[in-house]
Structure formats: C-alpha cells, structure tokens
Amino acid sequence: MPRVSVVIPTRDRLGLVGEAVASVLAQTFPDLELVVVDDGSTDGTAEHLARRFPDPRLRLVVQENRGASAARNRGAAETSGEWLAFLDSDDLWRPEKLERQLAALDAHPEFPAAYTEEVWYRRGRWANPRKIHAKHSGWIFERCLPLCIISPSSVILRREVFEELGGFDESLPACEDYDLWLRLTARHPVLLVRERLIVKRNGHSGQLSQAHFGLDRFRVRALWKVAHDPEVPDDLRAKALETLAAKARVVAQGARKRGARQRAEVFEHSRREALAWLGRIGSKPSS
C-alpha cells in the first residue's frame, strides 16, 4: 500500500492536465499512487494520458460528468494510501512538495493535515498571493471564514479525517473546498509548511471561479452547514453566523442590483435568521 494517494480531477483540460500529472510523478517522495478521474472529458484526456505516462503508479478512472467534488470523492474511494492529497488539473507541484509536507507532519504528529504556501501564474505572468490570502498554522477556523485560504492542491490529510468529514459536498457547484476546509478546521488544527510548493495557474477559461458569479451564495450554504453542525462549539458557531450574515447581505445587495428580487429576498431572510440565532446564543454581531 502506498503511503500517499494523489487524486487529480479533470475535465477537458488536455493542454494542462499532462503537466499536472508529470509534476506528481516527478516527486522526490516516490511512495505514491496517482488516480486521475476523467470527469466526462470530450477531448481525449484519458487516452492521451495513457499513452504519455506508462508509469504503473498512475491509474485512470473515467466517469460521466458529475463535477469536481464527485470526481475527487471517486478518486479517494479508488485509493488506499494512509494520506490523501489533491491536485487540481490546472495546478502544478514543486518536486519536493510531498517530501517536505510529510517530513513536517512526521515531526508534528498532532496535526492530521498540512498545506503549503503557493505562487500564482496568471495570464503568462508570475504573481504572489495578496495579503487577504495570507496563510496560518494551528487552529485556523476563523482565518478561513472570509475566503478560502487553503488551496485543494496544497493539502495533504489523513484518510480517516477525510472520511470523518464526509468528503467534498457534491451538491455544491462551487466553493466546495471552502466548505470542506471549514469543516476540517472547526475540528482539527492544520499545519502550514511555509514554502511555496505549488503553482496555481489562474485566469484561464474553464475555472469554476469564472463560471459562477456571486460565489458568496455558495459560501452562505457552507456556513449554514457549519452553524447547524452539533459538534461545532458555540464560539465558532457564532463566528460562522457573523460571517454568514455579512455574506448574505452582500449577495442580497448584488441580487437587487441585477433585478433578481426573489433571490435578494431569500438571502435577506437568511441574514435575518443568522442574526436572530446570534442573539439567542449571546453574540454581538459586527454587522
């Protein structure tokens, strides 16, 4: 059984996914298996990868298009490693990524998951993440509330923790990573390896962040899940509700500007419910 199982979900990214696969197979930590889940590609992805990479560590799984979350969950179910790692098909790993993370986790066994710093490659130019994407180590739930600071491509976590959390939410068409990392950080500390060990390639067509406007509407759904989770302590629940109220307000305002009155009313009602719940648990919301 390999120590690390790597999952790459992909759909119609023939020009990118091969480089992602190559970056995994070139890792300085060799004790791994790689499953690429072809989520309904129409560009010959699976056939191309099979020809290009005869490496026995690589396995291809083909399914009808069900979305990134379902593809990641399928890949996890098809593997057996103690640790799970994910790589988006438009991102890349530095060769020492897994080796550095596992060394850090071996030195700090109290952490069941680790992530890394990153560098961005956007429209042909290198860029560093902005200050709002600053990363932190330890109990970072509150740091994860404004936006997703953990990239799926940077994470490695124990399989039993992924299964405990129930995997990625397949009902979310976007922000499924935000949802999972909130559930993770509400229960566990996460270790940050302070090295830029992944390359995020942004700004190309086909990214979920470009396909879905108003991403905060999906974050509101994720925050409601946290609020209703009986295992989340009230202090964290209050922080989630504060954030929910603020994001629901933003979505409602945006919907009004677009003339979507019904959507605006739904999210305004969501904001009022969150504030009412905050009042019941004794919090003083900031918005």
Description:
There is one protein chain. By secondary structure, this protein is an alpha/beta fold. The protein folds into two domains: 4-205, Spore Coat Polysaccharide Biosynthesis Protein SpsA, Chain A (Alpha-Beta Complex), CATH 3.90.550; 216-280. It is built from eleven helices and nine strands. The protein has helices at 14-25, 45-52, 68-77, 97-107, 141-144, 159-165, 176-185, 208-211, 216-227, 234-257, 261-280, and strands spanning 4-10, 32-39, 58-63, 83-86, 91-93, 113-122, 125-127, 156-158, 191-202. Strands 1, 2, 3, 4, 5, 6, 7, 8 and 9 form a nine-stranded mixed β-sheet that branches. Helix 10 (234-257) runs antiparallel to helix 11.
Model regions low in confidence, pLDDT < 50 over at least 5 residues:
none
CATH homologous superfamily designation of the largest domain: Spore Coat Polysaccharide Biosynthesis Protein SpsA, Chain A
Shape, per Cα inertia axes? globular
SSE sequence, one letter per element: EHEHEHEEHEEHEHHEHHHH
Largest sheet, strands/sense/barrel: 9 strands, mixed
Helix content: 40-55%
Name of the top-level CATH class of the largest domain:
Alpha Beta
Strand content: 15-25%
Question: Could you tell me the number of beta strands?
Answer: 9
- How many H/I helical runs? 11
Q: Judging by the overall fold, what is the CATH architecture of the largest domain?
A: Alpha-Beta Complex
Coarse structural class: alpha/beta
Distance between the termini: 50 Å
Report the C-alpha radius of gyration, rounded.
Answer: 19 Å
